[in-house]
Amino acid sequence: MRKKLIAGNWKMNTDRATAVELAKGVAAGAAEAGDADLVVCPPAVYLSVVAEALAGSPVALGAQNMCCQDNGAFTGEISHTMLTDLGVEYVILGHSERRTIFGETDKNVSDKTLKALAAGLAPIVCVGELLEEREAGKTAEVIRTQFEGSLAGVSETQITSVVIAYEPVWAIGTGKVATPEQAEEVHADLRRLLTERYTAEIAQGIRILYGGSMKPGNAAELLALPNVDGGLIGGASLKPADFLGIAKAGL
């Protein structure tokens, strides 16, 4: 059995006070959310205060992005050493907003993934198709291309530390949700791709999350799917009750 993972991506939201309040709210209710692994990913400027708010709780700290370089003249970037110095355990890489708004490529994601793994961070590597790609019947092709490119160079030993998140871009922040059949189809495809590249045993151990307007009202149905091992949660992660409600729905 793969243990469920519920990760909250706060994106560019909260201020210092609300970030601390949100983190404390999640930490306070974590014990009632079952045995799922919980991760919160605040804006980078609040990682330190959120780490303090989570201290002593089972909730892990994640980051929303990182640079593929160790240090140097990379204005505005954040290195793996900065993240680990603050107690970060997970890092979201290749989120659709990074790909579509900031032009990140599969090669960029691969470089960051390899650097994160070398640093002992667990990458949450995102893949997903645009609406026009789904409507053109290209979902499987897009997912395979992103999977192969974003995980290029990742060894059998390293892949066991990777989490994959399927996020249909057309369902992020839109209120639209992939049907259970659509979600399961892509998750199963990703499991097959893992089997092809590595082994069936390794593939069965990798957690694949669904990201795309998951909330307490639809979480139970999605989390019950055979190949859905948790959620990468956006808007619903900004309220402790909603975030924890999703975790409880997976019990």
Automatic annotation (TrEMBL):
Residues annotated to bind substrate: N9, W10, K11, G173, S213, G234, G235
Family matches, as Pfam families: TIM (PF00121)
Catalytic residue list: H95 (electrophile), E167 (proton acceptor)
Pathway it works in: Carbohydrate degradation; glycolysis; D-glyceraldehyde 3-phosphate from glycerone phosphate: step 1/1; Carbohydrate biosynthesis; gluconeogenesis
CDD domains, A to Z: TIM
MF-aspect GO terms: triose-phosphate isomerase activity
GO biological process terms held by the UniProt record: gluconeogenesis; glyceraldehyde-3-phosphate biosynthetic process; glycerol catabolic process; glycolytic process
Location within or outside the cell: Cytoplasm
Record's function text: Involved in the gluconeogenesis. Catalyzes stereospecifically the conversion of dihydroxyacetone phosphate (DHAP) to D-glyceraldehyde-3-phosphate (G3P).
NCBIfam families with a match to the protein in the record: tim
HAMAP family according to UniProt: TIM_B (MF_00147_B)
Protein name: Triosephosphate isomerase
Organism: Botrimarina hoheduenensis
Lineage of the organism: Bacteria, Pseudomonadati, Planctomycetota, Planctomycetia, Pirellulales
UniProt gene name: tpiA
